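Anyone able to model this chain together with nicotinamide-adenine-dinucleotide?
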Amino acid sequence: MSNANRPAESAYRPYKLLIDGKLVDGAMTMDVINPATEAVLASCPRASEAQLDEAVAAAKAAFGVWADTSIADRRAKILQFADAIRDDAFPLAHLLTQEQGKPFPEAQMEISYSEAFIRQIALHDLPVEVIEDSDSRRVELHRKPLGVVGAIIPWNFPVLLMVAFKLPFALLAGNTLVIKPAPTTPLTTLRLGEMMADIFPAGVVNIITDQNDLGARLTAHPDVAKISFTGSTETGRRVMAGAAASIKRLTLELGGNDAAIVLPDVDPAVVAPAIFNGAFLNAGQVCIAIKRVYAHTEIYDALCNELACLADRAMVDDGLKQGTQIGPVQNKAQYEKLKSFIEDGRANGTVIAGGQVEDRLGYFIRPTIVRDIADGARLVDEEQFGPILPIIRFDDAEDALARANASDSGLGGSIWSNDRAKAHDLASRMESGTVWINKHLDFGPTIPFGGAKQSGLGVEFTEEGLHEFTQIRVINANNAALV
Ligand code: NAD
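re: yes, here you go
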C-alpha cells in the first residue's frame, strides 16, 4: 500500500521493548504525554536494570556472527529497514508529531530524510587499505567492528538522530546495538523496533526505554565498547566520566549556541525569513538552530522589525493541525526552563514579539524576539533550545566574531553577507564544527558533522563517521625472506 493510502494508526496501542529479537513488555510502564494537549498519548514499557543487562548480553552474543557477516549482507538488511520506513512513513510521521510536537510536514521530512540518509550511508565500504607494499614490508590497514554500541538519543529528532546518525554506521561496520531513546519520545523508536525485529537477526539491535535512569548504567557497562551519544553538554560530561573506566570509544554530539553574524550589506527583508527558519524550526529545539543573532547597527532596527513581523504572523498550534508552523515545545521541563529564558530576555532586553506562553493546554510558546540585549545575559550566553531569539547589535565585524567565539560551544554558526570574500574570511575564523555562509542548518550524510570545543567529540557522517565505529588493525608483514 502506498504511504498516501496508509491510515494513521492510533497511538493508543501496545508498545514493546526489543531485546534479543523478541518484543517484550517492560518491567514497568510509564506514560508518554502529547505536548500539544498534555494528555497521555500512550502507556509505554519502561525497562529495568536487569532488562538493560539482558539487552547488552544479547548484543554481545550476537556480535560475533554479525561481525562475520559480509558487509554486503549487512548492507542488504540495513536497506530492508529503509524500505520498511518508506512503507510506513505516514503513520510513523503521525506518531512522531503526537509524541514530539513538531508540525506534521516536519515529521514527514524527518522520516523521509531518515530513509534517504540510510540509503546514502549504506553505500559505504570498509576495504582493506594497503599502506605500503615494498621489498621490505607489506602494511595493511583493516577496520574491525568494536562490539556492542550504546546509542543514546535526545527528544528533539528521535528518529533522525537514531536512524541517520547512528544505526546505519554502527551496523554497517559490524557492531551490534543497544538503543536508548529519550524518556519523553520513545514511541516512534519502539514502533521502528517492531520493524527491526522482522529484519535483523536476534540481538543485533535492541531497544530499551527508561526514565533518565538507565543511561548511566549503559555508559558504564563493561560489555559496551562504544557510546554514541547525542544530547546536552552537561549529560555528555557524565557520559565521558562513566565511559572512562573501560576506555570506551565515544562520539558525543552535544549542545550548541550557534551565532549568526549579519553584515550591513544585506537586505534585512531578504535574509529575515531564512534566519527565522534557522532559529525556529522544530520550535527552536535543534542543536544547530540559530541561537543568537549579531546584527550590524546599520541594519539592526530593520532586521529586528522583519523578524518580529514573521514571529507575529507564525501559526503556533498542535502539529497535526494544517498550517501549523510552530508546535509546542516537547516537554514540561523544557517549557518551564524556557519561561525563565523569557524572563531573562525581559530583564536584560526588549521583547518585541511573543514573550508569552499561550493560555491553553499544551506547552505552547509564541516565537519570541528579544532586542537591545547584550552578551552576558543568560539568553545570549546559554543554549535556550526553544523559540526565543536574542538579537545583539554590533559595530565592527571583528568584534562580533570575537563575541561569537567567546562561547564554550562551537557546534555551528553562520555569516550573512553579499561580500563573499569577507564572509569567507570571517567563516574561516569562526570556532565551530560547521560554518554556513548565507544559510544555516544545511547538513547531510555526505558532509562531515561534529562540534568544536564543548559541543562534541568526534565526527558523524561520511566515511570518517563510519570509521568512528571501527577499531584499526594494522597488519605489518616482513616481505623479506626469513633466511
Ligand atoms: P539530555 O542530555 O538531557 O538527554 C539526552 C539523552 O541522554 C536522553 O536519552 C537521556 O535519557 C540520556 N541521559 C540522561 N542522563 C544520562 C546519563 N547520566 N548518562 C547517559 N545518558 C543519560 O538532552 P535532551 O534535553 O534530551 O536534548 C537536548 C540537548 O541535546 C540540547 O543541548 C541539544 O543541543 C543537544 N543536541 C545535540 C545534537 C548534536 O548533534 N550536537 C543534536 C540534537 C540535540
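Residues 119 and 336 are 39 Å apart (CA to CA).
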